[in-house]
Design goal:
The protein is α/β, with parallel strands linked by helices. Helix content is about 35%, strand content about 25%. A hairpin with a 5-residue loop joins strand 1 (about 50) and strand 2. Bound molecules: (2S)-amino(hydroxy)ethanoic acid and manganese (II) ion (3 copies).
Length: about 400
């Protein structure tokens, strides 16, 4: 089995979630702790020391020339996933980084500057609700006090989860020292669409990440008995929430190019014979033009308030995360295209740590073909051969940047 595939298989086996199935690997949880042990052991097998920084990011440095830790070339991705996610979103970037390091060594590469490997926590925001939480803390894109107060579905705060993972919550926040080490960051990621399938190419260079945000709608109603409450006497927040989901689809359709999704909806208390007292739903909106994203959210919020009033309910809307459209560093992605002449240029609708880091350091991405084009689902896929091609492409790009 080619090396990259073997690393992926080990991650999938270590990170498989016995409760929720699939390959969910929530941050700072038992599963991830095992995954973290696996990753640190893989680094150790390569003579590298993985160290977790004050924001929960795991760094390792290959620096045979003993150069100062500045202007380094850094690659890596994330090991957490969405609930029931696929086996490649995140892990492919981590496995390819390890494999690319092996290839550079096999080729006898003598880097003029350090190569850094990084793994970012909570990229999906599956546990604490804010995507790219680790890279946002590193770059100052989120205030540490806001991050520390975030809670997971069990009510555990990010601060407590961090303590449980041996981190000091007081250490969270923008880390200019860590940023100063990074000369450029290149993230390899499985493609989360069919672009490379349609172009019949194994690897692409990313041009941009379209803007995306996440808003929490909380609809307040009157909890009551399903059997003794007449329809005319109800203030049912779940009815309002269902109508908001439909309204989001209509508003998105009226703004071409918009992707709007409600993938998570949580009625409280959640009894089959109980009219909910409250419903939380999360709206994910994405569009290449940030102004359109804002207009879509404003229109859905307006419609939600109207629908709530008709039902005698109220609704609160809170922005949980917002990332503007990011155009990657042109000089950098042109340099990558020069190294990989057959690789097409692709924009992505998925968010990435690279999209957050691009605010502070020159950043680029590579995508490896996903034959199903499906992602955030167990059908996400990448063949062993393409996974290896992606690692070779990453090694080629890193060799050029490290020269
Ligand atoms: O949600 C996203 O786009 C990414 O997969 N975190
Ligand atoms: Mn993802
Ligand atoms: Mn990802
Ligand atoms: Mn009863």
């Amino acid at each position: 089995m080619p090396e990259t595939a073997a690393l992926l298989a080990a991650i999938a086996d270590t990170g498989r979630d016995p409760v929720r199935g699939g390959y969910s690997r929530p941050v700072f949880a038992t599963a991830e702790r095992d995954l973290l042990e696996w990753y640190l052991a893989e680094l150790g097998r390569r003579g590298l020391e993985g160290e977790t920084d004050r924001n929960g990011i795991v760094w390792a440095w290959w620096n045979p020339a003993g150069a100062p830790l500045r202007d380094a070339v850094v690659t890596g991705s994330h090991l957490d996933s969405v609930p029931g996610g696929g086996a490649f979103d995140g892990p492919l970037g981590v496995a390819s980084a390890l494999r690319a390091l092996d290839l550079l060594r096999e080729r006898g590469t003598e880097p003029a500057r350090p190569l850094g490997l990084a793994v970012f926590p909570e990229e999906e925001g599956s546990r604490f609700g804010v995507a790219c939480l680790g890279s946002r803390l590193l770059t100052g894109a989120i205030a540490p006090e806001r991050a520390l107060a975030l809670t997971d579905p069990d009510g555990t705060t990010f601060a407590d989860a961090a303590r449980g993972a041996g981190l000091d919550p007081a250490g969270f926040g923008r880390d200019d020292e860590a940023l100063a080490r990074i000369g450029c960051f290149v993230e390899l990621h499985v493609e989360q669409g069919r672009g490379l399938v349609d172009l019949d190419a194994p690897v692409a260079v990313a041009s941009s990440v379209i803007g995306h945000g996440r808003w929490r709608f909380t609809v307040h109603g009157q909890g009551n008995h399903a059997g003794t409450t007449l329809l005319a006497d109800r203030h049912d927040p779940l009815l309002v929430a269902a109508l908001v989901v439909a309204a989001a689809r209509e508003v998105a359709a009226a703004h071409p190019g918009t992707r709007a999704t409600v993938g998570r909806l949580n009625p409280v208390p959640g009894g089959a014979n109980v009219i909910a007292s409250r419903v939380d739903l999360w709206l994910d909106v994405r569009h290449p033009e940030d102004a359109v994203t804002a207009a879509v959210v404003a229109e859905v919020s307006r419609r939600a308030a109207e629908l709530a009033t008709v039902e005698g309910c109220t609704v609160d809307v809170r922005e949980e995360s917002l990332s503007p459209t990011v155009d990657f560093d042109v000089a950098l992605f042109r340099r990558l295209s020069g190294v990989l002449p057959g690789a097409p240029l692709l924009a992505t609708g998925a968010g990435h740590d690279a999209g957050v880091l691009a605010e502070r350091v020159p950043t680029a991405m590579l995508f490896t073909r996903n034959p199903t084009g499906v992602s955030h689902s167990p059908e996400e896929f990448c063949t062993d051969a393409d996974a290896e091609r992606g690692s070779v492409a990453l090694a080629d790009v890193l060799a050029d940047l490290l020269a």
